[in-house]
Design a protein that fits this description.
The protein has one helix and no strands. By secondary structure, the chain is mainly α.
Length: 21
């Protein structure tokens, strides 16, 4: 489960990927 997505630096892009997953 990708929880620490905002930790990468791109919360926008990561959020989109997370939603797709």
């Amino acid at each position: 489960p990708p929880t620490p997505i905002i930790k990468r630096g791109r919360p926008s892009l990561e959020s989109k990927l997370n939603e797709n997953n």
